[in-house]
Specification:
Layout lengths: L2 H6 L9 E5 L3 H8 L3 H22 L3 E8 L7 H24 L2 E6 L7 H13 L6 E9 L1 H17 L10 H7 L10 E4 L18 E4 L9 H12 L9 H5 L3
Parallel strand pairs: 1-2, 1-5, 2-4, 3-4, 5-6
Helix pairs in contact: 2-3, 3-4, 4-5, 6-7
């Protein structure tokens, strides 16, 4: 189906507020082309640009991209270093486009573990784009869901130890407020590319009721058409949040 036809099937009144994406398949795409893995990551940057602008045009308010996990530090050092250099280069290059499109950049994850130059470039762009309001682009860097939950539990434990919080007062709101993602709504839709069907330690708390869309398309080949298909798939589902269909359609 052509891009315009797919776009016409999208209900603009039901665009997910927050979309999260596990961008998978860069290395496999590069291998298929006979190139080194880093070439796939470079090609993946072009996909990021296209998807970010497509999401903003549709009216998505928050887009979270899983850019680098805590587990990715275990990859070969040469690849990690190349990824950090690519991140710095890409952020510098894309900042003007973020400004043109009214997109704010923010980050989640252990920023202190990133190389200082990389962290500095990120913070400069975060500051430059802070007043943009069309969409918030959230890069998950040196991030994992388990890491974030552990960090949140440590914060809560410190509050209890200091006598600032009673253990009986700990509930979902308290834990949610201690997470890196506290300032964002939970994702409505999670997309994973490359055909893998797992969460890979991403937003474990936040995606409890997210709709999940798996696609076999490798990230460097993921286009606006594929994004539209994910939105259409999302809109075809009934989101009941634990209720029955009757309760959802006819709330008391």
């Amino acid at each position: 189906m052509a891009e315009k036809e797919l776009l016409s099937l999208i209900d603009t009144a039901r665009i997910p507020e927050h979309v999260a994406i596990i961008m998978d398949g860069n290395g496999r795409w590069a291998k298929k082309q006979g190139y080194l893995r880093i070439f796939g990551h470079k090609q993946g940057v072009n996909t990021v640009r296209n998807v970010v602008e497509t999401a903003a045009q549709l009216g998505v308010k928050y887009l979270t991209l899983y850019a680098f996990s805590t587990e990715n530090w275990n990859r070969p050092k040469i690849e990690v270093n190349a990824l950090m250099e690519l991140l710095v280069e890409s952020i510098r290059k894309e900042t003007p486009r973020l400004m043109e499109n009214g997109i704010k950049l923010e980050t989640i994850g252990n920023m202190e573990s990133l190389p200082s130059g990389c962290n500095k470039t990120l913070q400069e762009t975060v500051e430059t784009t802070k007043n943009n309001q069309k969409m918030t682009l959230i890069l998950a860097l040196s991030y994992s869901g388990r890491w974030d939950i552990i960090e949140a539990v440590r914060k809560i434990a410190a509050s209890v130890k200091a006598g600032e919080l009673e253990p009986e007062a700990i509930d979902e709101k308290v834990l949610n407020a201690a997470l890196n993602t506290a300032r964002y709504p939970n994702p409505d839709l999670l997309i994973r590319t490359s055909g893998e069907q797992r969460i890979s330690n991403f937003l474990l708390w936040e995606i409890a009721y997210s709709e999940i869309h798996f696609t076999p398309v490798l990230w460097p080949e993921f286009t606006s058409v594929d994004f539209y298909r994910a939105i259409i798939d999302y809109q075809s589902r009934e989101r009941r949040f634990g209720k029955t269909s009757e309760q959802f359609l006819n709330p008391a």
